[in-house]
Write a structure and sequence with these properties.
By secondary structure, this protein is an alpha/beta fold. It is built from six helices and 14 strands. The chain has one domain: Carbon-nitrogen hydrolase (Nitrilase/N-carbamoyl-D-aminoacid amidohydrolase). The radius of gyration is 17 Å and the shape is globular.
């Protein structure tokens, strides 16, 4: 099983300016020098975390979707992040997983952040996503999902990487870092968390703290307070070896989630 190179782009965002954000991320993507398999952008990477869905939403298969398709094809890597999508008169905080061959998958954020009334603007998703890429199984989730461990539960080691894209404010950075580490330990999985930096249009500060954490809970990469582009190699043999030596998944409680 081959290793997997993942690229994190931790960036400031232009507030509610999709064109400027696409142009900015295109420059950052093309500055990547290392070979990479997955390029990860933050939550709502074209707009920032806005509730102005009626003005900012796009339909599937239009500008940002086509842009992601082009970036994936040209780099030979998956490009993923979440954007605001209007679908059948509803708005979704939707992660798009775009592969170089044009095949794509989506995940709609399940847990909507009621403290800013996200649940009144967007429709919650009901389906998890599990994608396989270059022999690795990956579960992508979005921001506030991190606080709900049952939703990310790795039953029978069904995934190898738990991926979070986020706009997680600096005021709650302790929770972000603690929960990322906990999700890695409890799920015997690599965890990759990609957050933004800077201030948004509501003067909310974001500190980044994007991270890659090993199945043991070790911090393999962490960046605080500044823009950063990093490519890191995840090793499958390390994951498989740890799971073989510490098979805690065999003692997991059996239950099903109703929703």
């Amino acid at each position: 099983m081959q290793n997997l190179n993942v690229t994190i782009i931790q960036s400031n965002l232009y507030w509610e300016n999709s064109g400027a954000n696409r142009s900015m991320f295109e420059e950052k993507i093309w500055s990547i020098k290392e070979q990479t398999d997955i390029i990860i952008l933050p939550e709502m990477f074209t707009t920032g975390f806005t509730m102005n869905a009626s003005a900012m939403a796009e339909s599937m298969n239009l500008t940002t979707f086509k842009w992601m398709k082009q970036q994936a094809a040209q780099t030979g890597a998956v490009v993923t992040g979440s954007v605001i999508i209007k679908d059948k008169d509803r708005y979704y905080n939707r992660l798009i997983w775009m592969q170089p061959d044009g095949k794509f998958y989506t995940y709609d954020k399940r847990h909507l952040f009621r403290m800013v009334e996200e649940h009144l603007v967007y429709t919650a998703g009901t389906e998890k996503l599990l994608v396989e890429w270059k022999g690795w199984k990956i579960r992508p989730l979005i921001c506030y999902d991190l606080r709900f461990p049952v939703w990310s539960r790795n039953k029978k080691n069904e995934y190898d990487i738990l991926l979070y894209v986020a706009n997680w404010p600096e005021a709650r950075s302790i929770a972000w870092k603690s929960l990322l580490q906990a999700r890695a330990i409890e799920n015997l999985s690599y965890v990759v968390g990609v957050n933004r930096v800077g201030k948004d249009g509501k003067e909310i500060l974001y500190n980044g703290d994007s991270a890659i954490i090993s199945p043991k809970g070790e911090w393999l990469f962490h960046k605080e307070g500044a823009e950063e582009i990093v490519t890191y190699t995840l090793t499958k043999t390390t994951l498989d070896s740890f799971r073989a030596k510490f098979p805690a998944d065999r003692d997991a409680d059996e239950f099903t989630l109703e929703y």
